[in-house]
Every structure is written in C-alpha cells, then in structure tokens.
Amino acid sequence: MTEIYPREMIVDESLPNSDQFAVTAVSGRVGRGVRANIRFERGTRVARFAGVLSNTVFQHSLQVSPETHLHDPYFVGLLSHSCAPNCVLDMQRLEILALRDIGPGDLLTVDYAVTEDTLYRQFPCNCGSSGCRRWITGRREAVNEAGKAYLAGLEAKKVRSMVPPRARRSAR
Ligand SMILES: [Zn+2]
Predict the structure, then answer these.
(1) d(Cα 172, Cα 170) in Å, to the nearest integer?
(2) What is the CATH class of 7-112?
(3) Beta strands 68-71 and 52-54: pairing type?
C-alpha cells in the first residue's frame, strides 16, 4: 500500500491510499481519473482529501468559498466530470460522499458545476447520461463562444439526422 498524496501533504491516516483507489489514465478523456479499488455503499464517505488553499482557480482546484480554492493535483482535483455523477463533494468537511453504490473499477465522478462558480476551462461533455448538458460551465458563468459554436454544431447534426434519407437526397 502506498499513500496517494506526497508525504508532506499527509495530515493523518484517513487520507486515501492505493488499496482504495487507483489514479489512472482514462480512455476517451483528457488527463487522468480516479478509480475505486474497493466497494463503497451509497451514502457513505468515499474518502477525505487535502490540498493547498489559494485564491486562484487552477485546472485541478476545487472551490471552497467564492474567494478560496483548494488545489489538489494528486487526488480530488483529478476526479472526472459527469452530469449524473456517482459522488458529491463536501467542501466544508473535505470529504467525497457516494451518491450511488460504487464498485471496484468504477471511475469516481462529480458534477463540476456543483462546486465551481467558474471553471478553469469550459469543455464538451459526452458522459452518456440522459441529462448530459453537452457543454460544461461553472454554475455562475455563461456558455462561452467555443461552447456556443459546439452546441450549435450538435444541434445542426441533430436536425440533419431527423430528416429522412429520401428527403435529404431530393433536397439536393
Ligand atoms: Zn455530461
């Protein structure tokens, strides 16, 4: 067993270790993610986390208050986004809680818009949930120009696929 955090960040034994979690590359996604190695029951604490407080938004930071962000590039800052996540963060207690039963191999996911007013970077989402928002922003920011273009492109594709093939041919 090894600790996931570097030694200087370990405040006590309740922080995550490699028996519980694996930090891995995630296929089809940019960057790394965190997978469970063991089971976690819905409603229970999955892990505690740590980090360095800052007033800057980083790629791997999470918002604690409007002015304060916890920077953690080792564990919680690597959690993947889903519009129907299996985890939620308690940013006061610095804990991850399970919203669903989680099994070995499952990717831990959170909804970034739950904690973040403004994202480090807005991005397209293809998480596969029925309520997928397709483009992810912070909870207090509008879809940016790249997002508008992306969503308009998806809409155009949808309209095209709704037209029956025959009508499409004769329309040319
Ligand atoms: Zn999504």
Answers:
(1) 5
(2) mainly beta
(3) antiparallel
User: Phi and psi at residue 113, in whole multiples of 5°?
Assistant: -70, -10
Expressed in angstroms and rounded, the spacing between residue 168 Cα and the centre of ligand 1 is 30
Neighbours of 128 (CB within 10 A): 9
The rounded distance, in Å, linking the Cα atoms of 44 and 15 is 15
User: Block means of pLDDT (10 residues each) for the chain, length 172 residues?
Assistant: 88 87 84 95 97 95 96 96 98 97 97 97 95 97 98 92 69 51
**Residue 150 burial class via C-beta count within 10 angstroms: exposed 0-12, middle 13-18, buried 19 and up:** middle
Domain assignments of the chain as residue spans, ordered by start: 7-112
What count of other Cβ atoms lies within 10 Å of the Cβ of residue 68? 14
Indicate the residue type of 95: E
**What pTM, to 2 d.p., does this model score?**
0.89
CA atoms of 47 and 76, how far apart (whole Å) = 9
126 CA distance to ligand 1 middle (Å): 5
The Å distance, Cα 81 to ligand 1 centre, comes to: 7
- Give residue 163 CA to ligand 1 midpoint distance, Å: 26
